[in-house]
Amino acid sequence: MFQSMDNFRLLFLLLLLLIFSFSSFADGGSIGVNYGRVANNLPSAVKVVKLLKSQGLERVKVYDTDPSVLNALAGSGIKVVVDLPNELLFTAARRPSFAVSWVQRNVAAYFPQTQIEAIAVGNEVFVDPHNTTRFLMPAMKNIHSALVKFSLDDSIKVSSPIALSALQNSYPSSAGSFRPEFIEPVFQPMLDFLRQTGSYLMVNAYPFFAYESNSDVISLDYALFRENPGVVDPGNGFRYFNLFDAQIDAVFAAMSALKYDDVGIVVTETGWPSKGDSNEIGASVENAAAYNGNLVRRILTGGGTPLRPKANMTVYLFALFNENKKNGPTSERNYGLFYPNEDKVYDIPLSSEGLKNYRDHENPVAGGSQRMSKNHGSGNVTTSVSGQTWCVANGDEVKEKLQAALDYACGEGGADCRPIQPGSTCYDPDTLEAHASYAFNSYYQKKGRAIGTCYFGGAAYIVSIPPKYGKCEFPTGY
User: Which domain of life is it from (predicted)?
Assistant: First the structure.
C-alpha cells in the first residue's frame, strides 16, 4: 500500500509539473499570420488551411473576403480577420444599405462555421493615395451597425490597421503622439468607437523599416531581439531591449496622451524580408529568421510592453507566402515564411510546441524593460528618470573591447576626444573607463542621442544622471 501511495504522489507531482510547464506557454500572447494572395503561383486555399494547421497557427488575417478562402477555413477552428478594402470605404460610408449587404454576403453567410473574429475596415488608410481618410469613421460605424443587425456585434470586432506613419513622434517611446491633423477628425472618434464597442486598435509595425533607414545608429541586435545593452527612454525611465516594444509603446503613449489607456492594441502586421535590393540594408534570410523566430518567442512566452506589462499581445506575422506579383522593391516579394510550394523559407517555430527546441544562433533577450542602477569603477553612474541622457562605458567589459571602441569613437566615429588628452581638462582620472565614457558620450551627443548610438558592441550604456569622473564635466549636446 505504501508503495502505491508513493507512486500516486509521484504521478501527481509529475502531473503538476506538466500543467505548470504548459501554463507557462499558455499564459502568453497569440501568433497569427497574414495570408496575402498577390501572386499567381500559390497553393489552393484548402492546402493553405492544412498548412496553417500543420504549423499550429490558430489565427489568420486575409485582405478580402474571397469565398474559396472563407469556405476552406470553415470548421478549421482557425480564427479569421477579414478586410473591407480601401476602395469600398466611400460606398460603405455613404450607404448604410451597402454595409448591411456586404456584412450579410461576406460575414454572416460564413459565421460561425468560419470563425470570423474581426473586420479590418480599410488598411493604412492615412497613407492611401486616394484620400479615403474622411470616409473611415462613417464606414466603420456602418459596418458595426450591420453587425448589430445580424446579432454578430458581440462576436466580431471592427477596427482599422494604422501604420506607424500615423504618429507625429515615435522616439523616444514616451513622446509618442498622433499626427495632429488626424486627432480631432479621426483618432478621437475612432478611439471612442473602439472603447464603446470593446474593440482594439490595429497597428502595423515594422522595425525593419526603421533599421533600414537608420542602420548607422540602430543596433541590428536591438532590432532582432538579440542580446544588447538596451536603450533608456529618458521620459519614462524604461530600458528597452528591442525596437518592437519601443514602437508599440510609442503608440500606447500616443493613446495615453488622448486619455485612452483602456483601449488595447493588436499588431496586425509585422515582419522582416528575407531578400532585398542592394540598398535595402538588413534584408536577408538570417535576419528574417532571427526577427520572426525571436518575436514568436517574445509573444508566446508572455508579457506585454514596458508601458503595458500585463497586456499579452496578439501579433500577425507578415506574411504566409512570398508574393511574386507585388510591386515595389525586391523586399515586397520576399516577406513570406513559405515559398509557394509550401517549403519553408527558413525554419522557425510558430507555436508554443515548436518553441521548446528553438534556438536563435545568438541568444535573444526576451523583451520588456528594466530600470537599472549601476556603479562601475571610478565613475559614480546611476540611471534614473530625467529629461537628459548620457552615454558611458561599461566598466565590466574586457579592456580590449573598451579600447577598440574608444579607438573607433575618437577616430572614425568623430568624437571630440581633445579633453581626454594628457594635460587636458578630462585627462584625470587616467583610466580606460573614464576616457572611454567621455568619448562614447561625445559620439552619442553628436549623433543626437539617436537609438543605437550608445552601443559600441555592448561596451556602453545610457544613463540619465550626469556622469562624474573626477572634475570632468560631460557635454549634453553639440
Answer: Eukaryota
